Amino acid sequence: MLTLIITLFAIQLIILILYLGLASVGHRFFIHQIYVSNLLKLFEYGQRGVERINQELQQKRRNRHNQQQQQQQQQQNGGHFKRTESQESNDRISSHSSSMDSDYNTDSAFDSDSDVDSDDEVPESFRKNCSMTLRLCETQNRLQLSTVMDFTSLGIEAIIDDAVTKRFAAEELKTWNLLTRTDNFSHYRSFRLAFIWLCGFLFRYLILFPTRLFIFIIGIGWLSFVCTFLGFLPETRFRKAIQYYLLIHVSRILSRSFGSIINYHDEENKAQPGGICVANHTSPIDVIILHCDNCYSLIGQSHSGFLGILQRTISRSSDHIWFDRFQMNDRLAVSRRLRQHTEEKKMPILIFPEGTCINNSAVMMFKKGSFEIGATIYPVAIKYDARFGDPFWNSSKYGYLRYWMMMMTSWAIVCDVWYLPPMTRKLDESAIEFANRVKSKIASKGGLVDMEWDGQLKRQPVKPEWIKQQQWKFSQTLLSGLDNDDNNYLQDGNNNQQQNSRNDNCDRNENFIYTNFDVQLTTKVNALYDQQQQQQQDEDEESELLKMKEL
């Protein structure tokens, strides 16, 4: 029995070594494609089961609701014939008192004699399909309270569906990938789904996880040995050549520890020595994925813990630059070292200008530092397929080892990498404009949302200048609208033609940001109102003079 166990272990070890050897030289296994295609079929089957369960639950809710309505109607109909004389007298008294109250409460929200569904009775700011309207009070020189109602609703919508904050959390999947972290407990409602989930759980934790953990230990040990070995070699052409192949070899082994399946596109555009490679940032494994096809020097935030140990280990073999983003002196030193590195034509530098991990649904603002030195920029777009496993690292929620364990217990990490043509800064282009141009190219190629917001909003509050900038844009938009239609608004208000004014204004843009009204806006509206009032007074005086002449 012992001999059989040793034999099986030796066979598995030989297969694993052969697998890692082929993977380290970039061999693509056909079994990966079969594995991915079968997983997709399994996900589709599970999604159909989830949809069927949801339909059954909705049908049960509708049936329960109908039964409750029928019971209420039966109770009302049955109780109608069992009313006593005392109850009828009480009803007459209550109805009389309610009519008395309606006579005295003239400022109530709804009148019993009025039709609340009529457009003439509903306040204009609450009418359906009506956008922002600026109306002046007919008796007072000020804006009405209902003017801000549309902005309030838009502000609430922005709070509920914030386009920025949701980029710092894992993106919700449209289909269930048989993981408890994304299933919404669907496997508890069906025996078949529960059985499939249990089989997948056992496969991931009893087969994939031990194998990948063993590969990870081998990869970390091999990385430490290679970096230490390269650190003792002098700076020669031979060292650069062996460094290039050994680091790629190590990265390919480490990539197998989380089951990576990488598809590279347009490899002729890979970064060259002396250039800067910029890419969107989703996870620390972005570095490993890009290192599987090229060798880079890294620049980034210094970390502590296990990730800090890795940073110090790889610094023995290459000229990496680590800094603290919150220290101004570090940022200035990084700029000098970055310029010196590119001028000496060393290995290309890999930079993630966003400065933080985004959930691979958008590209946020690029820092301008790497775009100021005038080096050639090699953009790279990385897009992950989250159906097999979400690689996003929420550093505020998970530590690095916990995150790596989640990667090892995922089905796979499938991604596409596009190398874009190199880009250079134009003569009449600022560093910020150049950074935005590169960012838009990456977002377009990777199918990501191009956003202008700073990724550091993940850790820091909104800067006051950003708030002032949005307020200024908001006030300018309102002022431009008044310049175009101010006479129509005032004339319609004086002539009580609010219906025509509402129809003319329903096409106005509703995508405004709720904020305080700017002082310039109130001043301009008041001036327009005074001008209209003065014109009305002049017309009244002229009419009185004409009457006097006729008399």
From TrEMBL:
Residues 275-385 form the Phospholipid/glycerol acyltransferase domain. InterPro entries: LPCAT1-like, Plipid/glycerol_acylTrfase. One of its GO terms (molecular function) is glycerol-3-phosphate O-acyltransferase activity. It is found in: Membrane. Residues 66-77, 95-109, 487-503 have a biased composition (Low complexity). The chain crosses the membrane at residues 6-31, 190-207, 213-233, 401-420. Pathway: Phospholipid metabolism; Lipid metabolism. It comes from Dermatophagoides farinae (American house dust mite). Residues 82-94 have a biased composition (Basic and acidic residues). One of its GO terms (biological process) is triglyceride biosynthetic process. This is Glycerol-3-phosphate acyltransferase 4-like protein. Residues 59-124, 485-508, 531-551 are annotated as: Disordered. Keywords: Acyltransferase, Lipid biosynthesis, Lipid metabolism, Membrane, Phospholipid biosynthesis, Phospholipid metabolism, Transferase, Transmembrane, Transmembrane helix.
